[in-house]
Write a structure and sequence with these properties.
The radius of gyration is 18 Å and the shape is globular. The termini are far apart. By secondary structure, it is mostly helical. The protein has one domain.
Length: about 210
C-alpha cells in the first residue's frame, strides 16, 4: 500500500468517525457526566470494537454476514435493542448528571462496555467498511496489509473520540452540563430511542 493510498484511506476513516450517530452520543455522555477518564476509556473501547469489525471485513468473513439477510437483520435487531435500552435508561435518569458523576467516576467499566458494545452492535459499521475496503484491498493483499487497514480504522476512530472526550470534559463544558444534567439525559435518551426506532422501522417496513 502506497502512502497516498493510505492517506486516502485514513481521510475516509476520519470522515466516517466524525459523522454524528449513537457512538458520538455515548462518548459525549460519558465525557460530560464522568470526566476525561471515562470518556477516553469509552473512546478506546469503541476503537477496539471498530478494529474487530474492520478485521472481520478485511478477512472476507464480513461479506458472508452481509450476504445472509436473516443474520444481518438479527444483528440489526440486537443493535436496536441495545440502543433502546440505553435511551430508556437515559430518559429515566431523573437525578441528572450531578447524581451520576460520583458513581461513574468510581470506574470505567461501564464506559468501556458501552463503548465496545455500541461499536459491535452497529451494523452500519459493517456496511461502511464493506464499501470502503472494496476500494483499497487488492486480491493479492497480504495479511500485514489487512492488519494495517484494520488498525488504521481503529486508531483513527479511537483518537477522534478521545479528542471529543478531552474537549467536552473541560471545566467550562462540564460545568454547563452539570447545570443542565436532566436536559442532557433526556436529549441523549430521545436521540438513542429515535435511532433505535429508525433501525427497527427499516427492518420491518418491507415486510
Amino acid at each position: 500500500m502506497t502512502l497516498l493510498t493510505w492517506l486516502s484511506l485514513a481521510l475516509v476513516c476520519l470522515l466516517g468517525a466524525m459523522s454524528p450517530g449513537p457512538s458520538l452520543a455515548i462518548v459525549v455522555r460519558h465525557s460530560v457526566t464522568s470526566g476525561t477518564r471515562a470518556g477516553v476509556i469509552c473512546a478506546f473501547a469503541h476503537g477496539f470494537g471498530i478494529f474487530l469489525w474492520a478485521a472481520l471485513m478485511v478477512s472476507g468473513l464480513g461479506a458472508l454476514l452481509l450476504a445472509q439477510p436473516t443474520w444481518f437483520d438479527g444483528l440489526r435487531v440486537l443493535g436496536a435493542g441495545f440502543l433502546l435500552y440505553l435511551g430508556c435508561r437515559a430518559l429515566m435518569a431523573q437525578r441528572g448528571i450531578a447524581a451520576d458523576t460520583g458513581q461513574a467516576k468510581s470506574g470505567g467499566g461501564e464506559a468501556a462496555r458501552e463503548g465496545l458494545v455500541i461499536a459491535l452492535s452497529n451494523p452500519k459499521v459493517a456496511v461502511f467498511f464493506a464499501a470502503l475496503f472494496s476500494q483499497f484491498i487488492q486480491p493479492d493483499a497480504t495479511l500485514s496489509v489487512h492488519l494495517v487497514i484494520a488498525a488504521t480504522a481503529a486508531v483513527i476512530d479511537a483518537l477522534w473520540y478521545t479528542v471529543v472526550a478531552l474537549l467536552l470534559s473541560r471545566p467550562a463544558w462540564s460545568g454547563y452540563f452539570t447545570q443542565h444534567g436532566s436536559l442532557l439525559d433526556r436529549t441523549f435518551g430521545v436521540i438513542l430511542v429515535a435511532v433505535s426506532a429508525a433501525v427497527l422501522w427499516s427492518i420491518w417496513q418491507p415486510l
